[in-house]
Design a protein that fits this description.
Elements lengths: L1 H16 L13 E6 L2 E7 L8 H9 L7 E4 L14 H7 L4 E4 L11 H8 L3 E4 L3 H7 L1 H9 L3 E8 L4 E3 L11 H11 L4 E5 H7 L16 E5 L8 E3 L13 E6 L1 H9 L5 E6 L8 E2 L9 H4 L3 E9 L2 E8 L1
Parallel strand pairs: 3-4, 4-5, 6-11, 6-12, 8-9, 8-11, 9-10
Antiparallel strand pairs: 1-2, 1-3, 7-13, 12-15, 14-15
Keywords: Hydrolase, Metal-binding, Multifunctional enzyme, NADP, Oxidoreductase, Riboflavin biosynthesis, Zinc
Family: In the N-terminal section; belongs to the cytidine and deoxycytidylate deaminase family.
InterPro entries: CMP_dCMP_dom, Cytidine_deaminase-like, DHFR-like_dom_sf, Eubact_RibD, RibDG_C, Riboflavin_Biosynth_HTPR
C-alpha cells in the first residue's frame, strides 16, 4: 500500500514537473510535492530559466508545515551551492523534512548521490526509484545534453497518406487540419528552440511561433539551418552544430525534407511526431530524401511507438528511439 501511495504522490510531482517542459534549460524541469498527514502542504516546479528550483518553491509555500512532511521530488535534490540559489538538499534539511521520495538520482557530478547521502546523514529517510522511467522521460532534454552533448531532438512531419508533404509546385497549406496544427503549436511551446532549413524559409516564410491562447509567450527561439548567415535568424551551418546552442535542451525540427533527412542521416533524432492526413496527393514532394540506410535491415528496430491518437480527421503517431 505504501508503494502505491508513493506512486500516487510522485505522479502529482511529475505533473508539476511537466509545467516546466521546454522552459528551464540549462536546468532540468523538476516537480516537488510536500505531503504531511496525507495532505499537500507545498507544491513547486522549476521556474523558467531554471530558478527557483521546485523544492525551494514548495518549501516557501509550506512554511512551518514542512516540518515532518515527506518531500516527493522527480529528481535528486541538488547538493551544490550556486550563485543563483542555495542547495535544495540543505533547504529540505533545514525545513525539518522527515522523508524524501525521489524518482531518480541526478547525473550532474556536482550532486550525483551527494544529495541523498547528505539527507541520510541528517536523519532523513530516503527512497529512490519511484516512477523512475516516467521521470527520465520528463527530463529527456537534460539527460540527452549530459549524455550526448546536444539537445533532445523532436522531428515533426505532416504528410498525406502516401508520404507527401506538398504538391509538385510546393503547395502545402494545409495538408493537416486545424486540430493537428493546434497540437503542433502546443508541441512548439514545449521546446526551447525550433529549426527549419533555408528551403522552408524561402518557400513558406514560417513564423514558427505559438498561436494558442495563453501560450503565446512560450514561442521557441527560431533557428535556421544554413551555411549563409541571416540577419533575422539564429543560424547554424550543420545539424551537428546543435551541440553549440546554449540554453537549448529540447529542439524541435520542422523541416523541410532536406533538413529532416539530414538530421536522420546524422542519427540526431530522438522522437518523431508524424501527423498523417486522410488524403492522397500522388505525384508531389516526398517527406524524406536520402537518410543513409545501407539496407532495409538497418531500417527495422529503430523506432518504438509511444502514442497514437486522432486529431480531428488526422492521425498523430509519436515514435521514440527504440
Amino acid at each position: 500500500m505504501g508503494h502505491l501511495i508513493d506512486r500516487r504522490w510522485m505522479g502529482a510531482a511529475l505533473a508539476l514537473a511537466d509545467r516546466g517542459t521546454g522552459r528551464t534549460a540549462p536546468n532540468p524541469n523538476v516537480g516537488c510535492v510536500l505531503v504531511r498527514d496525507g495532505r499537500v502542504v507545498g507544491r513547486g516546479w522549476t521556474q523558467p530559466g531554471g530558478r527557483p528550483h521546485a523544492e525551494a518553491m514548495a518549501l516557501a509555500e509550506a512554511g512551518d508545515n514542512a516540518r515532518g512532511a515527506t518531500a516527493y521530488v522527480t529528481l535528486e535534490p541538488c547538493a551544490h551551492l550556486s550563485p543563483r540559489g542555495p542547495a535544495c538538499t540543505d533547504l529540505l534539511i533545514d525545513a525539518g523534512i522527515a522523508r524524501i521520495v525521489a524518482a531518480m538520482g541526478d547525473p550532474d557530478p556536482r550532486t550525483n548521490g551527494q544529495g541523498f547521502d547528505r539527507a541520510r546523514a541528517a536523519g532523513i529517510a530516503v527512497t529512490v526509484g519511484v516512477c523512475e522511467a516516467e521521470a527520465r522521460a520528463m527530463i529527456a532534454g537534460f539527460l540527452t545534453r549530459r549524455a550526448k552533448g546536444r539537445p533532445f531532438v523532436t522531428l515533426k512531419l505532416a504528410t498525406s497518406l502516401d508520404g507527401r508533404i506538398a504538391r509538385p509546385d510546393g503547395t502545402s497549406r494545409w495538408i493537416t487540419g486545424p486540430q493537428a496544427r493546434a497540437h503542433t503549436h502546443l508541441e512548439r511551446s514545449r521546446h526551447e528552440a525550433i529549426l527549419v532549413g533555408r528551403g522552408t524559409l524561402v518557400a513558406d516564410a514560417p513564423r514558427l511561433d505559438v498561436r494558442l491562447p495563453g501560450l503565446e509567450a512560450h514561442s521557441p527561439r527560431r533557428i535556421l539551418l544554413s551555411r549563409t548567415p541571416d540577419k533575422d535568424w539564429d543560424t547554424i551551418p550543420s545539424p551537428a552544430a546543435i551541440s553549440d546552442l546554449a540554453g537549448v535542451d529540447r529542439l524541435m525540427v520542422e523541416g523541410g525534407a532536406q533538413t529532416a533527412s539530414a538530421f536522420l542521416a546524422g542519427d540526431l533524432v530522438d522522437r518523431l511526431l508524424l501527423y498523417r492526413a486522410p488524403i492522397l496527393i500522388g505525384e508531389g514532394r516526398a517527406a524524406l530524401g536520402e537518410i543513409g540506410l545501407a539496407s532495409l535491415t538497418d531500417a527495422h528496430g529503430r523506432w518504438r511507438l509511444r502514442d497514437s491518437r486522432m486529431l480531428g480527421s488526422d492521425r498523430l503517431e509519436v515514435y521514440e528511439r527504440a
